[in-house]
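Researcher: Please predict.
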Amino acid sequence: LSWDFMMTEFSDTVLDRMESQVTKYLKKWLNVTKSADPSIFYRGTFGLNITSIKDAFLAGRTNTEITLCHFAPVLIQSLELLLKEGEKVTLDVQDQILPND
């Protein structure tokens, strides 16, 4: 899920539904009553310290933003240099700028 959370935008409604399903299955698998407080799964102290869906999504999106802010200027400079030289450019799967040979 980490990759999906980094690359895809999800609405709060979708995240709420996902977290509800995860909590439902955790209760079922761990044989916890349906009426139990779901925070027992996500609490660090006196809980299981499982990362919630919303926290995982926020962490993934934050990592994406930091990465984009850090590498965007380098990519733009590389593109500008290649284009000034008249090169046709493509981006490979790893986002490295390569001249077309």
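Model: Strands lie at 89-91, 97-99.
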